[in-house]
Design brief:
five-stranded parallel sheet; alpha/beta; 197 residues; globular
């Protein structure tokens, strides 16, 4: 079997294995946050940071959330990294944003935060817990700290240990696009769908 066919087969396998009930619980939590006029903070590192930026756009434009990604403000992110250390970047950003109990933090991550990896996610989760915010996740592997602490966490199943990152980051996009187009969350139609005859 070619690498391409294997990767596509794995993608289909993951799509079939996703926990539909966990995704439905994500919809419900997000619906509640929006109804309470809470904000949505999307956290990610590396490729997941790029996904966070895209997700924020979609949640704002298509689903009517007040949504933000701290990695979109490179000046603040690098100042916090330089002055206070990488581990506290997201926590400091959430504190400056006056995160409160009506808000939600959505973590996009391959590993979900571990003692030695993505400590900024771990500390952000702890801060969010301290103020009573909702914690959500779309995570790969076993979900790490996010899966342990989140109100709802969708774990992208591992079907190939050598392709955890590409599959996890790809399915972050699949799932958030599902969320913003879900009938209970969508408030607007995407441009191309709106042009259908």
């Amino acid at each position: 079997m070619s690498f391409i066919r294997q990767h596509l087969n794995e993608t289909a396998q993951i799509a079939y294995a996703l926990d539909e009930s966990a995704i439905e619980r994500l919809v419900t939590k997000l619906e509640t946050v929006r109804a309470k006029q809470g904000r949505l903070f999307v956290l990610g590192v590396g490729g997941s940071a790029a996904n966070a930026s895209h997700a924020v756009n979609d949640f704002r434009k298509l689903a009517g959330f007040e949504a933000y990604a701290p990695t979109d403000n490179v000046a603040e992110l690098t100042a916090r990294t330089n002055d206070d250390g990488w581990e506290s970047t997201f926590m400091g950003w959430l504190a400056a944003s006056r995160l409160h109990a009506r808000d939600a933090v959505l973590v996009l991550s391959v590993g979900g935060g571990q003692p030695s990896v993505s400590q900024n996610i771990v500390r952000a989760i702890n801060y969010a817990l301290s103020v009573g915010a909702t914690i959500l996740g779309i995570i790969g592997r076993d979900g790490g700290y996010t899966a342990t602490m989140a109100d709802v966490c969708v774990i992208v199943p591992t079907v190939n240990a050598n392709a955890v990152t590409p599959h996890a980051e790809a399915f972050q996009a699949v799932i958030w696009h599902l969320l913003v187009s879900h009938p209970r969350l969508a408030l607007a139609t995407a441009k191309w769908e709106g042009l259908q005859a």
